[in-house]
Amino acid sequence: MAKRISNYEDISNAEALAILRSIIANYGPSPKLDAVLEYLSKFSKVSNEDAKNMIKELEEKFGITKITAIQLVNILPKSIDEIKSIISSEKGEFKNEELQEMLNILQKHSSNQG
Q: Given a cut of 50, is residue 77 above it in pLDDT?
C-alpha cells in the first residue's frame, strides 16, 4: 500500500539538510540518503538558522510569499536583476530601493558563511 502525504511544508535547502542529517544520525545512512546529503551539502549556501532568519525577514519586510523567499535564500542572487527574475511571480511591483534591500539582506547573511 502506498503511503499518502498528509501534510507538507516548503523548506529551504539548508533546513532540508538539517533534517536529513538528523535522520541519518538516528537511522543510519543509505545510498539514497547519502546522494541527497551530498547534493544538499553542495548547494546549501547558508546555515539553517540564517536561512530561517532570512526567509522570515523577507516575508515580513516585503510581503513576498514563503516559497519566493525560500527560492531567494536557496539561490542567493548576486544582483537586482537576478532578484527580479526570481520574484517575477509576486504580485505588485518593487521599487529599486526595496530590491537593493533584499539583496543586502541576502548578502549580509551569506557573508556569515565565510
A: yes
pLDDT for residue 114:
46
pLDDT at 112: 59
- How far is CA 34 from each of CA 19, 26, 65, rounded to the nearest angstrom? 13, 14, 31
In contact, 105 and 58? CB cutoff 8 Å:
yes
Model pTM?
A: 0.88
CATH of residue 92: 1.10.150
Radius of gyration of the chain (CA): 16
Dist. CA 68–CA 56, nearest whole Å: 11
- Regarding whether 73 and 53 lie in a shared domain, the answer is yes
The reply to whether 102 falls in a domain is: yes
Q: Does 94 share its domain with 53? A: yes
